[in-house]
Amino acid sequence: MRLPYRHPGSFRDPDSGVLIDGDRVLRYFSPRGAADFAVLAETGLIDSLAGAGKVVPYRVVDASRRPAAVRELAPDASLVVEHPRLPFISYPYEWSFDMLKAAALLHLDILKCALSDGWVLKDASPYNIQFAGSEPVFIDLGSFTRYEPGKPWAAYHQFCQMFLAPLLLQAAKGVPFQPWLRACVDGIPLEHLYRMLALRQKLRGPALLHVVMPVLLNRLFGSTATPSQAAQARRLHKTDILRLVDGLSAAVASLRSAAPPSAWTSYEAEDGYDAQARAQKLAFVEHALGAAKPKMVWDLGCNQGRYSVAASRHAEHVIAMDRDEGVVNALYHRVRDSHRNVLPLVLDVTNPSPDQGWAQCERAGLAARGPADFVLCLALIHHVVVAGNVPLRAFVAWLAEVAREGILEFVPSTDPAAARMLQWRRGVGLHPGYDQSGLEAALREHFTVQETARLQGSERLLYWFRR
Q: Residues 437-445: contacts with CB within 8 Å, 24+ apart?
């Protein structure tokens, strides 16, 4: 996308928006939004939350020093603040269960702090939260607005659809929520979740209070309620909203994923390598990363992150991706306290997140968020080419689009892991060229191979390549 530009995901709030100018992230406010933010800043609330790492830090840009991008794209802006640029933007449909849960709890914590100071969050979208490594941080300073006594929390329904319903779906039914959130930009409709829950699940606390009762009330009154009737509803005290927030926090904290463990949760301990080959592979990876000193590494098919953690010692940021939600969730717990520059994401290389949302640009696809400085493709190629039926040359060409340098582990069709996959493809066969010479020819079209190594006791080959 051309620079500078108005961020395509920030159009929904009429009182604030985001501009990208090179490496600068600039949030601008309308006159009304600026007036609110000025009062908010004076309370010290934002500075306190930013100091605790809960809200993205900011600095006010002096009106006389605003870049040309602001004058061109937001000429009516009354206030401009600048944020540090996050290394990688991710979306809720790429998070694991406990990552979405952590984001929900952060949102409720910030809301409670805001209410205590006379403010409220006017929306409850998980897109207002990003992960800086393994730590969630709230990024939408325009979401704070003054609390009006007697008014309900207007974003309650949105919170239930975009945070609580996805978590309840996976906690109650064992169904991963990621495909649902990827397809439903406004979250999972409560009516849909209501139809999926068994009777005993509907009668349990969080579902009964925040799904069943709203759905039944909407069925009874939703189509006949008028503004005058709504205005006659009893006025809510702030303590009522705080009790609601506390109840939601307790409900979210109590949820546990019911998704069954997959076969890949034990892969790291049973990966088929002997100790010597495993040590050789790790040494090859560490050597290449130590020489490259990349800023951003993508680990594709990361499993529980043995090599993501190794990469974190050499790179500023590591994006660890795997299609299996269970292993990504396990990796999140592995890195969140000790390797905070690792961001685990639920992403399938054969079907990565696309450009989508309004005008197909509100949420950027995976390729648009690259290229990475370095990519790890370890024990991945047979999943893409053999199981996924992607031509080898097409896979290597895609790597050239998303990465400047990397390591690829070649798993030949005679390898036991690839051979098992081929058993399910009888009568279909492989695209031509899935062999060592075919891979090396494909690599030469886009890269220069720096080093090659054969893993001891194996037919597998490691290639360190560079564009």
A: 438/392, 438/393, 439/381, 439/392, 439/396, 439/408, 439/410, 439/463, 442/392, 442/393, 442/396, 442/397, 443/396, 443/408, 445/393, 445/396, 445/397
Strands 374-377 and 296-300, how do they pair? parallel
**Cβ atoms 344, 96 nearer than 8 A:** yes
Rounded CA-CA distance 370/365 in Å is 9
Give the β-pairing of 448-454 and 461-466: antiparallel
- Among the residue ranges 123-132, 135-144, 218-227, 370-379, the one predicted with the least confidence is 218-227
* Band (228; pLDDT cuts 50, 70, 90): very low
Q: Dig out the tokens for 180 from the structure.
A: 């649902």
CA neighbor of 465 nearest in space, from 455, 454, 446, 457: 446
> What's the mean per-residue pLDDT of the chain?
93
Closest CA to 91 of 349, 359, 348, 345: 345
Residue 429 DSSP one-character state? -
Structure tokens at 298: 């993508």
Predicted pLDDT of residue 227 = 46
pLDDT at 230 over 50: no
Rounded CA-CA distance 463/451 in Å is 6
pTM tops 0.90 = yes
Q: Is the peptide bond before 391 cis (omega within 30 degrees of 0)?
A: no
Exposed, middle or buried: residue 377 (CB in 10 Å: 0-12, 13-18, 19+)? buried
From the number of C-beta atoms within 10 Å of its C-beta (0-12, 13-18, 19+), residue 164 rates as buried
How far is the C-alpha of 402 from the C-alpha of 446, rounded, in Å? 12
How far apart CA 392 and CA 51 sit, in angstroms, is 48
Specify whether the CB–CB gap between 66 and 80 falls below 8 A. Answer: yes
Q: Is the pLDDT of residue 224 over 70?
A: no
Q: Which residues contact 285 (CB under 8 A, 6 or more apart)?
A: 307, 310, 311, 376, 378, 407
Main-chain phi, psi angles of 374, to 5 degrees: -150, 140
Q: Under DSSP, is residue 382 helix (H, G, I), strand (E, B) or coil?
A: helix
Phi, psi (degrees; rounded to nearest 5) at 461: -125, 145
> What's at 55, amino acid-wise?
V
Helix residue ranges, H only, 184-274: 190-196, 199-202, 205-207, 213-217, 227-231, 238-254
Q: Are strands 79-83 and 405-410 parallel, antiparallel or unpaired?
A: unpaired
- Taking the C-alpha atoms of residue 449 and residue 442, their distance in angstroms, rounded to an integer, is 11
- The residue among 336, 334, 271 whose CA lies nearest residue 305 is 334
Tens of pLDDT, residue by residue over 166-207, are 999 999 999 999 999 999 999 999 999 999 999 999 998 899
